């Protein structure tokens, strides 16, 4: 039994016509009929009900076709895995990331990676911190890029880059003409916070705990973009990273003198889970790329 025989058999079964199958396979009709006949002789049963050039699988053919399709699929997967091992610069990386990172950080990262590895493709998932961590936990993603660090079971977290956080106030606010402030300057201000579905919420909580006060939360947004929008509308002040898409009209951004306010963006993956060669290349690229960027800065 040969590979070609199995492919010929499935093509005839799909088209239910010997001549059309021969045309699709670019072989002569007698050669195709001979191949199918040799296969049936080896199996000891007929696989088709014939009516001239028209054919249909009989009960033996239906059983055999189901097994052949599964076998060919497994063989093709095996060939793909071997190809990835012998040529790691192909394949697909599955990546999930926070909404706010989609404006600049992720496109820039993937663009830099694709310049070096143009044949590696990406499956992308964008959402809340809870959403992207679930994707990683369930195996739908090879990696997630998030902030802050999380300590899930069997998780590895590689810090990539640290970003300063700024006090953001509406234009015309009494603090808007300042270049920098202490965090205590917003003690009595209505604060645009974040709800617990946003990863940055825990960063806020840790910072405010360290300075010994809790902000007067006026609204809790679901994401950083919404928080920035509420500040732009004059509804309060906030503490935000200077991420592309957040610097909206109607806002002033003030450096925090003290305490140090920053967040770290990192790459997370499951320690014991299989990573394809393409995924390993991406992980190594991130590690080296951000080490280089930090050195340059």
Biggest sheet architecture: 8 strands, mixed
Shape: elongated
Average per-residue pLDDT, rounded, comes to 88
**Which CATH class of the largest domain is shown?**
Alpha Beta
CATH topology of the largest domain: D-Maltodextrin-Binding Protein, domain 2
- Residue stretches low in confidence (pLDDT < 50, at least 5 long) are 292-297
Strands, count: 12
Query: For the CA atoms, what is the radius of gyration?
Result: 29 Å
How far is it from the N-terminal to the C-terminal residue, by CA?
Answer: 63 Å
Q: What is the CATH architecture descriptor of the largest domain?
A: 3-Layer(aba) Sandwich
From N to C, what is the helix and strand string?
A: HHHEEHEHEHEEEEHEHEEEH
Please report which band the strand proportion falls in: under 5%, 5-15%, 15-25%, 25-35%, 35-45% or over 45%. Answer: 25-35%
CATH homolog superfamily of the largest domain: Periplasmic binding protein-like II
Number of helices: 9
Structural class label: alpha/beta
Pfam families: HTH_1, LysR_substrate
GO molecular function, one term: DNA binding
Domain HTH lysR-type: 1-58
Family: Belongs to the LysR transcriptional regulatory family.
């Amino acid at each position: 039994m040969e590979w070609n025989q199995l492919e010929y058999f499935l093509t005839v079964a799909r088209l239910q016509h010997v001549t059309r199958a021969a045309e699709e396979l670019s072989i002569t009709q007698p050669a195709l009929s001979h191949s199918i006949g040799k296969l049936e002789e080896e199996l000891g049963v007929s696989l088709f009900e014939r009516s001239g050039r028209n054919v249909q699988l009989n009960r033996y053919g239906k059983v055999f076709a189901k097994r052949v399709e599964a076998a060919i699929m497994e063989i093709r997967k095996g060939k793909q895995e071997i190809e990835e091992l012998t040529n790691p610069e192909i394949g697909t990386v599955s990546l999930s990331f926070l909404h706010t990172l989609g404006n600049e950080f992720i496109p820039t990262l993937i663009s830099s990676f694709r310049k070096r590895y143009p044949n590696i493709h990406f499956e992308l998932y964008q959402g809340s911190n809870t959403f992207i961590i679930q994707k990683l936990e369930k195996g739908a993603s090879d990696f997630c890029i998030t902030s802050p660090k999380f300590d899930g079971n069997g998780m590895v977290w590689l810090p990539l880059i640290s970003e300063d956080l700024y006090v953001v106030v509406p234009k015309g606010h009494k603090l808007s003409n300042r270049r920098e402030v202490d965090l205590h300057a917003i003690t009595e201000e209505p604060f645009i916070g974040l709800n617990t579905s946003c990863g940055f919420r825990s960063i806020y909580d840790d910072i405010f705990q360290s300075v010994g006060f809790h902000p007067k939360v006026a609204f809790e947004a679901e994401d950083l973009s919404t928080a920035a929008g509420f500040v732009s509308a004059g509804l309060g002040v906030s503490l935000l990273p200077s991420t592309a898409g957040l610097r909206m009209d109607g806002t002033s951004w003030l450096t925090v003198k003290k305490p140090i306010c920053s967040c770290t963006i990192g790459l997370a993956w499951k320690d014991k889970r299989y990573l394809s060669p393409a995924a390993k290349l991406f992980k190594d690229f991130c590690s080296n790329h951000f080490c280089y960027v930090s050195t340059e800065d």
